[in-house]
């Protein structure tokens, strides 16, 4: 059974801003899903550390420190509170891998865009064709692909590979946006953000976690398609609220709050309020559509949608406490 921690407060709905950015978010964000965590979190934390060491990804002290500050197993636990230990370990390994890969791609994309291409092409070759790796990151991805193929059906594994390739392509789009002289529009920003979020590659694992297959009628239902889109946006945009200060200081562009700030030429607190309004509307639409379709779903279909709920819930509770986004807890609200 998942664990409920009552000491972690949920977001209030008063809309009253607090003294810091984190307090503003907590006061205004609509979060109807209560906090849950997976009872296997501590074991999976050790498993992630061992997996990263095995592939040499934490040999660099800076990467090892980044993993400590991002707590990938904690994010997996909060996002996937009801799955078994085997699925949770894959989710946690993939989150850790994506943090390492994403930070490396961001560094290359900003400083040496041409050097980003071999890195991304290696990943596409592994994901699409099973090509042998040539770097430690590629070797880790190859092993992650093996884990998914051993646990998922061929169709689920194929969806995992496809969504993972979309994530890789998104990092190239982000690099183009970051190096372009003209600021990008909010719409372009959110399109790129939906790809760089890297959330949808996890959804086939929630298919695999069910005791029966999600039916084709359920999986391809238009409402289910919309739920997938809404859940990804709500999850990653919520993380954007807490990471806005960090991204602003680093010169980042692919962030919902910063996109609103550019579009309105306003202060960051005002931009965060605009982003929260957009997130709240997204979560409410998700709730309404889920209520509309839930009675038509099989238990496997319900479990699959609950995996989407997990990412909305988990990204909020993880973002508000993780050291990676600690700046939000000290940034004063002045608007």
UniProtKB/TrEMBL annotation:
Family matches, as InterPro entries: Amorph_synthase, Isoprenoid_synthase_dom_sf
Pfam families for this protein: Terpene_syn_C_2
Gene3D superfamilies: Farnesyl Diphosphate Synthase
Protein name per Swiss-Prot or TrEMBL: Sesquiterpene cyclase
